[in-house]
Structures are given as structure tokens and as C-alpha cells.
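Supplementary Note 3. Input sequence used for the single-chain structure prediction.
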Amino acid sequence: MKKKLFITLCLIIALITMIFIQMKPSTVSSTENPTNESISLAVYKSSNYTSDAYKNALAQLHVVLESTNTTKKNEVVWEKTFDSKYLSQYPTVEDVIKQNIEIKNVLSKNEQLIVKYDIIYSAQGSVLQIQNEATIDDTSTNVTISI
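The predicted structure, written as C-alpha cells, is reproduced below.
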């Protein structure tokens, strides 16, 4: 009797284990080949900043490109801090600062690319940090950042 109970219990545990293994989502698609993603950043000033109030105001830009997969684990795949400049030194929308980024081995079905950026303004001892992000998808690989 005890032997039959033990065997039954082992079979139930094995069955439950097999069910959980089948339910675990696959993080890599066996039919999908990795591709390279090209992302284009464009940085420009949104105002002319000619007023005396902006004369000594600076802005610095920090950009991080993250890849997130089906398990929601984020991985930094590219990062850059642009030099701090006076607001008046940033180019207009006609003369943007361009940064092209190439990310290799992206699984488009399982991964999503997110551009996160911080603009840090400083003037007369005060600091203001603004955070934003943009999701890269099939329809949008261009990210514009206005200072």
C-alpha cells in the first residue's frame, strides 16, 4: 500500500513539473533571426533663447538606449552624455545634432528598444532635470529631442 502511494505521489510530482516546464515562455524564438536596428537621434533647441534670462543657462543631455525582453529585464545597449552647452549654442531644428546608433542582434518579436533621456538645465545655481523616453518600433526609429 505504501509503495503504491509513493509511486502515485512521484507520478503526480512528475506530471506537475512537466506542466510547469511547458508553460514557461521561451525567451528566444527558434525561427527568428536576429537583426540590426538603426536608430537616429536628432537634438535641437525649441526656442531661440536670446532673452537675457537664458544668457548663462546651460543644458546637458544624457541618453540611454535600453533593450527589454519578454521577461521585462532591461539591458543598457548604448549610452552617451552630450557635452553641456549654453542654450543659445544648441542648433535650430534645421541644423540638428544627429546621432546614428546601430544595435546588433535584436530579436524584434521578443525585444523592445527604449530611448530614455534626461535633460539637465542649470542657471544661476538652480538645476532642473527633465526625464523622458521614446519606444522604438517598426514605424518609428527616429527620436527627436528638443532642448
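Residues 87 and 137 are 31 Å apart (CA to CA). The beta strands are 35-44, 58-68, 74-86, 97-106, 112-123, 126-136, 142-146.
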